[in-house]
Amino acid sequence: MPHVLRCALQRRRPCEAPRRTTVLDVGCNKGYFSGIALNYLAPGFGNHLQLLYTEHIKSNKSDNPCGSCNDCQEPLPKHLPSLGQAQVDVYCYEPSTVLFSGLTTARDTVYGPPESPVQGKGTTVRFNLRNKAVSNRTGTDKFPTDSATEVGSLGEGAPVNVTTLDAELSEAGMPTYLDVLKIDAEGFDPTVMAGAYHLLRSHRVGLLTFEYHSEWNRSGGKLRLCLDYLEELGYSCYFDGPRLVKLSGCWHHELEIDRCSNVVCAVQGSAYDDALFKGSFIAQSHGVGVNGTTGEPVAATHNLLGGRRMRARE
């Protein structure tokens, strides 16, 4: 992870002063996205993807324990911080009872329950699990709760509890700020963001990443409308990758590609926003998106989030 992003994760606090960091994962599935973030935030544990994969193999609760993109085989990034955060809180939302059961077993073995967490070289990870779907309303809906695949979505299956991020983060004991919010809801990502209006409006999310593809037609979402919504709330967005492609303020109708992609956003003017801009194609093409120490391109989300596509609720 580039030095600039380590500082951004600590919200402009000195990098030598580790703090508490929060990751919220909507559509957690097997927990591999959270594992990628933890590789940077809690490096003392080792490769979190391999740790989770080992437990998923043992529990045999998933149709594809390695993940549809072979997440479990992803090596550790070359540039990891030597010192992790003092505490990392993960909030993982997964409505499938089958996958939730496998996650619980893996969590308890690798990290311990939140009330008695395991420590890895100075970092305490509290991995909180929520057996709920996330949308723009509270109540119940249908979901294939007995599915062990990565493509379940609301509207079919058995009854499941549904919540919003605004409702969840208003509960006592929940975090007041999310360093990273990931959404992978099989086409219902815009609906989840609609249910996080107050959270986003108050800039209580540092880095937001979501999946965009043709399945957005399930919720009637369009990328342009979603970007307008986020820009109005004060966020700048990019197509994610080794070189980020700026979307906010640079819209063209050909960007509505309907192909599996990731979008990453940050509060305008924040340390995250600065890190994303320095990792963008336009910055690097003008020679301003390089790390002053190493001379290497600063691809912020590529390094933070593993630089691979999210597919099918990984």
Q: Would you kindly provide a written description of the structure presented here, covering whatever features stand out?
A:
With 314 residues, this protein is of the alpha/beta class. It has one domain (3-305). The protein is 28% helix and 21% strand. The chain contains eleven helices and twelve strands. Strands 3-4-2-1-8-9-12-10-11 form a nine-stranded mixed beta sheet, with helices on both faces. α3 (48-59) crosses α4. The longest helix is centred in the first third of the chain and has 14 residues, at 97-110. The radius of gyration is 18 Å and the shape is globular. The two termini are 21 Å apart. 50% of the residues are buried.
Share of helical residues: 25-40%
Percent of residues in beta strands?
15-25%
Distance between the termini: 21 Å
Radius of gyration: 18 Å
Order of helices and strands: HEHHEHEEEEEHEHHEHEEEHHH
Q: How many domains, as an integer?
A: 1
Shape: globular
User: What structural category do the secondary elements indicate?
Assistant: alpha/beta
Point out poorly predicted stretches: 1-17, 290-314
Tally of alpha and pi helices: 11
Mean pLDDT: 82
Biggest beta sheet summary: 9 strands, mixed
- Strands of the widest sheet, in order across it, are 3-4-2-1-8-9-12-10-11
Number of strands: 12
Organism: Chlamydomonas incerta
Protein name: Methyltransferase FkbM domain-containing protein
Give me the secondary-structure topology.
Elements: H1 3-9, E1 20-26, H2 32-41, H3 48-59, E2 87-93, H4 97-110, E3 119-120, E4 123-130, E5 133-134, E6 139-143, E7 158-163, H5 165-168, E8 178-183, H6 189-194, H7 197-201, E9 205-212, H8 223-232, E10 235-239, E11 245-246, E12 261-267, H9 271-278, H10 281-285, H11 300-305
Parallel strand pairs: 1-2, 1-8, 2-4, 5-7, 8-9
Antiparallel strand pairs: 3-4, 6-7, 9-12, 10-11, 10-12
Region (Disordered): 136-155
Protein name: Methyltransferase FkbM domain-containing protein
Pfam families: Methyltransf_21
